[in-house]
């Protein structure tokens, strides 16, 4: 999806300053709601404080780009490590 690629390109560099990479992104309908899911990764994993910091970086960029017409929930989380 072109919108997700646009968003990924916009958040990639700001997140790189925290050594965070975007693992995956999806815009999905769950029931009657939409969700923008952004999965992040970092060497040695990401703690909750870093997720909050990353969300504070991502949220204003998402708002500024205004790529999606539908109302949605922004869900930023870390990649599961399977440990």
Kindly give the count of domains: 1
Strand order of the largest sheet: 1-2-3
Largest sheet geometry: 3 strands, mixed
- The percent of residues in helical segments reads 25-40%
Average pLDDT for all residues = 93
> How many distinct beta strands?
3
Topology:
Elements: H1 2-16, E1 21-30, E2 33-41, H2 48-65, E3 72-78
Parallel strand pairs: 2-3
Antiparallel strand pairs: 1-2
Helix pairs in contact: 1-2
Describe this entry's structure for a reader.
With 83 residues, the protein is of the alpha+beta class. It has a single domain, classed as GMP Synthetase, Chain A, domain 3. It contains 2 helices and 3 strands, in the order αββαβ. The chain has a 3-stranded mixed beta sheet. Helix 2 (48-65) links the parallel strand 2 (33-41) and strand 3. The model has no long low-confidence stretch (mean pLDDT 93).
Quick overview:
With 83 residues, the protein is an alpha+beta fold.
Keywords:
alpha+beta; three-stranded mixed beta sheet; globular; 2 helices; GMP Synthetase, Chain A, domain 3; single chain; 3 strands; about 80 residues
